[in-house]
Amino acid sequence: DWMVGMFVGFTQSMAGRVSKRIRVGFVCEAPIQFMPLIGWYRKLVCHDIFVWRSFKQDSPTIKNNIRDFHTADECRMLFLSPEGIVVDYGEKD
User: Fold this and answer.
1) Buried b (16+ CB within 10 A) or exposed e, 38-57
2) Do 81 and 26 touch, CB atoms closer than 8 A?
């Protein structure tokens, strides 16, 4: 998943069209940010959005990250690929 997203973001010509490179951001599971080198790089340099699978907990993180990129006026493609289930339990759970 990550390689496809990075390829699409960094390719300047695709399907006969020339375009500018854009920054690719990922929404991924929070434990990845603690992985040495790869996780640290994605957290500190790439500013990916790391989610814990709880919308109540992740909502402020997602909103702040998107607001920061709007403030910086930087083009970014957000690649949504976390797998699994949401852990916000309701009355029926």
Assistant:
1) ebeebbeeebbbbbeeeeee
2) yes
In angstroms, the CA 55 to CA 61 distance is 10
What φ, ψ does residue 11 adopt, rounded to 5°? -80, 130
Which contacts qualify for 85-89: CB closer than 8 Å, 24 or more apart?
A: 85/53, 86/53, 86/54, 86/55, 87/52, 87/53, 87/54, 88/54, 88/55, 88/56
Q: Name the DSSP class of 90.
A: -
Give the model confidence (pLDDT) of 11-69 as tens digits.
656 666 666 667 777 888 888 889 999 888 888 888 888 888 777 888 898 899 888 88
